Sequence to fold (326 residues):
Amino acid sequence: MTRALAPDALGPTICAGEILVEVVASRPGAGFREVLDLTGPYPSGAPAIFIDQCARLGGQAAMIGAVGDDDFGAVNLDRLRRDGADLSGVAVDPDRPTGSAFVRYRPDGARDFVYNIAHSAAARFGWSDAVEALVRRAGHLHVMGTALSMQAARDVIVRAADIVLARGGSLSVDPNLRKEIAHDAETEALFADLVDRAALCLPSGEELSRAAGIAMPEAAVAALHARGVGEVVLKRGAGGATLFLPGGIRYDAAAFAVPEVDPTGAGDCFGAAYLTCRRLGMAPERALDYACAAGACNVAVRGPMEGAATRAELDAFIAGTPRRAS
Ligand code: ATP
Ligand code: MG
Fold:
């Protein structure tokens, strides 16, 4: 049976995981072993970027996580609140600082990170009355692979998935695998179980094969459809994206031609735009265009959440921006 996405009217899209500030090195190079010019703090954390983009597009969206009682926390809370996200599931930890990620691009576009997540407020949240009340009115749960390596997020995701699905809501997964974050066998098994209950999977590059457990891309897509994932959207960076629907239906979308200033967060904005457009009733191929536009708007500015665009901004962007030759 193919699973479908639940409409926005059922309740907000929720996402549990790390809320971080990001600090970006101004010059490309290798790592952080020298004195560098840095910019930031920018609001960040893949789940938080995702929820912010959902909210900016006019979808109901709510974050589950924690920040410290400090300025880095305020940077995130102020932004999410400004953009209309529901923060009832975000705790303020009095004892730990807000999580952080330092990122430096290499000349070839690869990234080095220094994270402070595990020992920060970002990893210290859990099931609470406020979280339960939110989950019980949620319409969709989006799961980030990065969050599964955090025990706190993992516990919340496992409980929330059962509740959201039981009330007719839906599930999506972004494998979002980072080389710095290793997954153990238990996490892999949990990930596979979530894929088996998802309506939408949003892999990037070789994550498609990881998500399906099958090397060949065509076979991997077919396997995900056979497991009931109705919509598989493959992200290919500046190469654009492809949407695969059951029955061999495929839509290719070329990326928009923008300067790549800071690609961090593109995948999150892309996924959030696709999901939100679909939950608001838009057809899949049209949602794919909005997703590509959201990803492109995000890469064109520095800072992982700075390019999250509204519907009106995306309409103007689509009307005025050529596509890259693919
Ligand atoms: P991340 O995990 O770093 O946030 P990702 O690997 O999940 O990203 P990408 O494939 O990098 O996702 O980006 C998602 C989408 O954003 C792409 O499919 C594309 O539509 C758009 N995009 C990304 N990079 C560019 C770019 N340089 N130019 C134009 N569009 C881009
Ligand atoms: Mg990604």
About this structure: The chain has a mean pLDDT of 95. Residues 151-166 form the longest helix (16 residues).
